[in-house]
Amino acid sequence: EAGVTQFPSHSVIEKGQTVTLRCDPISGHDNLYWYRRVMGKEIKFLLHFVKESKQDESGMPNNRFLAERTGGTYSTLKVQPAELEDSGVYFCASSQDWGLESPLHFGNGTRLTVT
Amino acid sequence: LAKTTQPISMDSYEGQEVNITCSHNNIATNDYITWYQQFPSQGPRFIIQGYKTKVTNEVASLFIPADRKSSTLSLPRVSLSDTAVYYCLVGSNAGNNRKLIWGLGTSLAVNP
Asked: Least CA distance to B93: which residue of chain A?
C-alpha cells in the first residue's frame, strides 16, 4: 500500500507570504494528524481530523494556521501570513482508527523555512 | 499527560544488543507506552507498543516493570541501518482522540 505522502518536501518563503502544505493519507485511513517540529524542539501535535471533521485542533499555534480536509481524503495546512517562528518540519500522519492500537503512519514531512 | 525522559544519545556496534531506557514517572493508569524510530529526512515509524510486562515483535522487545514508571526498548543484534532517533511516548485514548507527548528522543549511532 502507498504510504502517507506530503508535498512539497521543502519550501522556502519570505515572511508575510502564504504557504500551503498538502498531505495524502493512506487510502482508507479516516484519521489524519498534523504535527510540527521546530528546530531543536520536540515534535508537537497540531490537530486531528476524523474524515472531514476537526476532532481536536488544540495544538494549532494561532489563527494564521488553517487546516482543511474537504471530502475526507487529502488535507492541506495553510500558513498565512508566515512568520519566522513558523519554520520547522511539518509532519502528517494517518491511522485507520483513532485508538492507540492503531499505529500512526507518518509522511516524510515538509521542511518549511521562512526568511 | 506523562512526560518521558530518555538519554540524548547512545553509541553501539554492529551485532550488539542495544537497550534504551525511558523514564515516565507520572504515567497514568490508562497510558500505553509506544516507541517510534526516525531516520534522517523521514517521518517517525512505529516500532512497538505495550502496557505492562513484556512485548516482543519481529523488530524489538519492550520491557515494562510492574510499577510502569520506566520502560526499556531492546534491539537485538543491531546493524548500521538501525542508526536513527528513537522516541518513547506515553499516552492514552482520551475521548475520541489519542494524546501523546513527544520528547527529543535518543539518537542511536551504530558503528561498524
From this structure: A99
**pLDDT exceeding 70 applies to what percent of chain B?**
93
Nearest to B43 among A48, A100, A109 (CB): A109
Q: Is A1 exposed, middle or buried (0-12, 13-18, 19+ CB in 10 A)?
A: exposed
Write the pLDDT tens digit of every residue in A38-63: 988 999 999 999 999 999 999 999 99
Nearest to B87 by CA among B40, B20, B12: B20
Distance CA A44, CA B85 (A): 16
Question: Which helix or strand (DSSP H or E) is residue A88 part of?
Answer: strand A88-95
Task: Please work out, in degrees rounded to the nearest 5, the angle formed at the alpha carbon of residue B80 by the alpha carbons of B78 and B86.
Answer: 65
Which chain A residues are closer than 8 Å to B32 by Cβ? 100
Size (chain B), residues = 112
- Where residue B102 falls (left for φ over 0; alpha for ψ -120 to 50; beta otherwise) is beta
Q: What is the pLDDT of residue B97?
A: 61
Q: Which residues does A contribute to its contact with B (CB < 8 Å)?
A: 4, 35, 41-45, 48, 50, 55-56, 91, 93, 98-101, 103-109
Position A72 scores a pLDDT of: 86
Whether residue B39 is predicted with pLDDT greater than 80 in this model: the reply is yes
| Close Cβ partners of B64 (under 8 Å, ≥ 6 residues apart) | B33, B50, B51, B52, B53, B54, B55, B70, B71
CB-based contact A100 B41, cutoff 8 Å: no
Average pLDDT score over residue span B79-93: 92
